[in-house]
Amino acid sequence: TMTTYKLTYFPVKALAEPIRFILSYMDKEFEDTRFERENWPSIKPTTPFGKVPVLEVDGKLLHQSTAITRYFGREAGIAGKDNWEALQIDIAVDTVHDLRQAIAAFSYETDENVKERKKNEALKDTVPFYLKKLDDLVKLNGGYLANSTLSWGDLYFVAISDYLSYMLQFDIFENHPNLKALKDNVLAIPKIKAWVDKRPASEL
């Protein structure tokens, strides 16, 4: 029998999009369940750790989007050819998470004064520093985040890039030609392009 996949998340890309990208890349059909924010209190207790995205594989509930994307990356053969290469991908993805956390720290801040201060600091130092370093990394790796070849890390980064740009309120690819080329290459992969063309529209 065919394996069934059901993904549950808010009606946005954000942290579920890497899973949608990798499943699409592998040509696996999945049920893309999106719920409105007001329904979250009733859905939350049904999740393993009170968080989404959750991917149900033949009725087994999985959570943690990076771990899930990495697993399917291994299954798809785009997780490095040995442990050393796998490490390079993990390092790149963890670095992207550091950037995401620096952005989220001000984006989700509720105190307006604190938010403004955190945002100014991040936009002055942290964000440009990370984006330049990541751009250099991609240049060094011949257009990819690691090992000079496509990996699940590239899919992960491009999949959450709209979310990063949304929180920052500017396009992270502007003035970063290597990151922009990476994004264009990932979005040109036929199965990912097909997903992007048919997915519901959302800002983040």
TrEMBL record:
Please give the name of this protein.
glutathione transferase
What GO MF terms are annotated? glutathione peroxidase activity; glutathione transferase activity
Q: What is its EC number?
A: 2.5.1.18
What the entry lists under InterPro entries is as follows: Glutathione-S-Trfase_C-like (IPR010987), Glutathione-S-Trfase_C_sf (IPR036282), Glutathione_S-Trfase (IPR040079), Glutathione_S-Trfase_N (IPR004045), GST_C (IPR004046), GST_superfamily (IPR050213), Thioredoxin-like_sf (IPR036249)
Keywords (alphabetical) are: Transferase
According to its UniProt record, this protein's enzyme class is: transferase
GO biological process terms, semicolon-separated: glutathione metabolic process
| Reaction equation(s) it catalyzes | RX + glutathione = an S-substituted glutathione + a halide anion + H(+)
UniProt keyword Transcription regulation, yes or no: no
One matching Pfam family is: GST_N
**CDD domains membership:** GST_C_Sigma_like (cd03192), GST_N_Sigma_like (cd03039)
Q: Which family does it belong to?
A: Belongs to the GST superfamily. Sigma family.
Q: Does the keyword Metal-binding apply?
A: no
